[in-house]
Amino acid sequence: xxxxxxxxxxxxxxxxxxxxxxxxxxxxxxxxxxxxxxxxxxxxxxxxxxxxxxxxxxxxxxxxxxxxxxxxxxxxxxxxxxxxxxxxxxxxxxxxxxxxxxxxxxxxxxxxxxxxxxxxxxxxxxxxxxxxxxxxxxxxxxxxxxxxxxxxxxxxxxxxxxxxxxxxxxxxxxxxxxxxxxxxxxxxxxxxxxxxxxxxxxxxxxxxxxxxxxxxxxxxxxxxxxxxxxxxxxxxxxxxxxxxxxxxxxxxxxxxxxxxxxxxxxxxxxxxxxxxxxxxxxxxxxxxxxxxxxxxxxxxxxxxxxxxxxxxxxxxxxxxxxxxxxxxxxxxxxxxxxxxxxxxxxxxxxxxxxxxxxxxxxxxxxxxxxxxxxxxxxxxxxxxxxxxxxxxxxxxxxxxxxxxxxxxxxxxxxxxxxxxxxxxxxxxxxxxxxxxxxxxxxxxxxxxxxxxxxxxxxx
Length: 459
Hints:
The protein is α/β, with parallel strands linked by helices. The protein has two domains: 3-53 and 315-458, Alpha-Beta Complex (Aspartate Aminotransferase, domain 1); 61-311, Aspartate Aminotransferase, domain 2. 39% of the residues lie in helices and 12% in strands. It has helices at 24-33, 61-67, 78-91, 102-113, 127-135, 163-173, 197-209, 221-231, 240-249, 275-288, 299-311, 315-334, 352-355, 365-377, 386-389, 417-431, and strands spanning 48-49, 95-99, 119-122, 139-142, 181-184, 214-217, 253-257, 268-272, 347-351, 379-380, 382-384, 405-409, 440-444, 455-458. A five-stranded mixed β-sheet has the order 2-8-7-6-5, sandwiched between helices. It has a three-stranded antiparallel β-sheet with strand order 9-12-11. It has a two-stranded parallel sheet with strand order 1-10.
């Protein structure tokens, strides 16, 4: 491996959090008590926690300093003004409504922008996003390029919307029956795959011609900007901030979880330029979250988010962030471990179909694989396959996604390359005796977002 491709951590560590490794026998007991659901495992039983990059990031000294400047006024917080100005500077949107996290913004947008029976096309579903869309009467339509559903295809900008699919949907259903286009940057469940600037522009032009709004899921927008700078012609000499500003110029608004590229532990927001939608959002945020000047956030968290958004524009930071993920992916590929290709921005996705070919999708191979990895090594990951996809709300049948994956998610500024070596070694070792991995079945299945709290046992 050419280690010169991976930059050293662009930070010094000035505070540490001890971790410990419990025995394999203890991990087996913990997994059984958790119903073989990695979401239900207590964190003090985990050695390296790669469950998610959401809210698990390490804040900078400047962010911690900003926390001390929290203005906790019930209305008119100065930290809200700082956050609003920062979002307008970086993204260009006129209006912002803070929320407790991304799904709060999804709830607001779905409530005000979707009429019963309208279609919401997007570049692959995400769990909470689709729930809010469907819960408000929308019908999700996947219009991502076909290659995104094939883990083995290694092409750039695998998260792009198939514009012809979108055009055909508009012609068949009518523009008035489309609530808005939901464009994710990057596409989480496709493997953290980016969207090209050219695709954003083309989608924007088609939607404007038909009077349809475009809202981004902007959760990992800085990662997407890095891929554009690295891989799209004409952007190599642009700064991350310049690329980000152009990206959002093709959108009418966005939902944002600050817990990812905002590099904070809690918080999010909804943005838009439309005055009427903004007034509706302000009315609803009071019901669901809090005053329009804080939503579901404390003043100190808004300050940390404003600082974190600016830090995510730093090339040294974002390049290390993406390349650290790529480092883990490259180690696994070299060892022959099947993963989703190319490696995306926030996680390496193990291809559970090829990892566990002896298991049917109804044996929940990704769920089984995630649990076995924890039992073997103390590394916690999550399933992103049939369990996360849930059931069709009309037929009750399981959605059967083509991608059946385990998401090995890297928090920002938390782990080192040595940690990645340990994770890679654990996965490679497990792959060598993959036939021992047993399938699972439900013991308890919640009706909504079942992957969070479901419980399983071995078949």
